[in-house]
């Protein structure tokens, strides 16, 4: 799997990358972003990398800041694939806690065996170590602002 990810033959779930980053003791953005670590992270929309990931896996995402040793969180926009394209069914777990805010559209948040409807303007904070998954509600893409927060 690692070889396929490295060679661009497959896209990996954020949860999988999170586990790899934890094992390597590096931040999630260190795996995803090729830029050097900085003490000021200023990233204009035009300089931000396009989406990373594969919509056929049920999502793609954008890093909102590159490697920074100043913080213990990873800001990301998760693009949840429309229902008619979504193939993802199994839940994720990872070591970081997570905060989400729905920027556009709506999702079902499956968390620890329960289903929650969330729409634009809703937010949630939860333990990443419990099974969770974003599922689209309809055939429109949803955008979820996500902060992965390292446990101290």
UniProtKB/TrEMBL annotation:
A Gene Ontology cellular-component term: cytosol
A GO molecular-function annotation: DNA binding
Keyword check for DNA-binding: yes
Keywords from the named record: DNA-binding
Domain of life: Bacteria
Stored InterPro entries: Cro/C1-type_HTH (IPR001387), Cupin_2 (IPR013096), Lambda_DNA-bd_dom_sf (IPR010982), RmlC-like_jellyroll (IPR014710), RmlC_Cupin_sf (IPR011051), TransReg_Diox_bact_type (IPR050807)
Residue ranges occupied by any HTH cro/C1-type domain in the UniProt entry: 1-31
Name recorded for this polypeptide: Transcriptional regulator
Organism: Ornithinibacillus bavariensis
